[in-house]
Amino acid sequence: MDLRDYKLTPKQIATAKNVLDYQPFIITDSVQTGVAYSWLYGDEGGRTSHGKDFICERDKVSEQQYSKFCDANLALRDMYDDWLDVIAQSYPGGTLLDPACNNGYFPVGAIKRGMSTATGYDRADYTKSVAFLNEVVGTNAIFNHRAYDPRQQHTIPGCKQHDVAVASLILCHISDPLYYLSFLGKMAKEAIFLFSGMGVEPGYRIYYSKPNKFYTSDTFPVCFDNDVGLSKDLLFDSLEMMGFKNIKVLPHQDSWLPKSWYDTGNQQAILAMR
Fold first, then answer.
1. How far is 165 from 147, CA to CA, in rounded Å?
2. Among residues 171, 221, 234, 267, which one has the fewest Cβ atoms lying within 10 Å of its Cβ?
3. Which H or E run contains 207?
4. What sections of 156-247 are H helices per DSSP?
5. What is the pTM of this model?
6. Where are the domains of the chain?
7. What dotted CATH number matches 79-273?
C-alpha cells in the first residue's frame, strides 16, 4: 500500500515508522516496510528475522540493499493487491474477516475496495497500526486484540461470521491446522481465501517441523509454529467437506514474488467458495 498518495505529515511519517513493519507499505520515497526482503534474502528464509528487519530507510543501508528491499516488497504488494481485488470483485459490498491480520493490510484494503465491513484479529496488539491506517486512508476497519484459542475452544472468542475469511501464511504457524481450517469454515459465510503451502504427495498428511521457532513460550501440544502444513489432498477434501466445493486456484503472476520462492513448499493462493 503506497501511503505517499495520502501526503503524510511529518508526524504521520513518524507514527508510520513506529506502527508499521511486517506488511508492505511505502511510507515515503526513502522509507518502506515489509517482510518480503527477509523471505527472499534472510537467513532460513526470514525465519530468524524480527521487527527491525522489516523497516528499511534509504539513508541507513546501501543503495543496492534499499533497491532489493523495495523490489521484493513491491512484488509482495502486487500479490496482496491482486488477491484483494479478486476477493472484493467476487463479493462486492461483502464482509471480510482476517483472524491474523498483523498491521491490517487486508482489512483496510478490503474497505478501500468497497467491502462494507472488515474485521481483523491478532495475538499481538496492532490497535495502533490499524487505527493509523484508518486515519490516513479514510477507512473504518475494525481490530480486536484477541487470539485464536488452540487448546479448548478452537475459535477466537466473540468472533462473528463474515462473508469471506482470509488466512495468508497462517496455517503454517498453527499446531492444529484442521481445527483452524474448521474455524475458518465456520466463520466464512461464502468463501475462504487461503495462501498456504501444501504437500504434493498423494493421500492425507499433516506436516510438522521443530517447535517454538517463533513463540518460545507456547507449550506442548500447541508449540508447533513453523512449517506446519496439510497435503493438497487433505486440504482440498477438507474444504469440500465443509461445503466449499468451488475451489479456484489463482495462477502465479510475473509481478508477484518469484516462482522459485512461490514454489517452495508448493505454495498456492486459493479462493474456496460455497
1. 15
2. 221
3. strand 206-207
4. 177-187, 232-241
5. 0.96
6. 79-273
7. 3.40.50.150
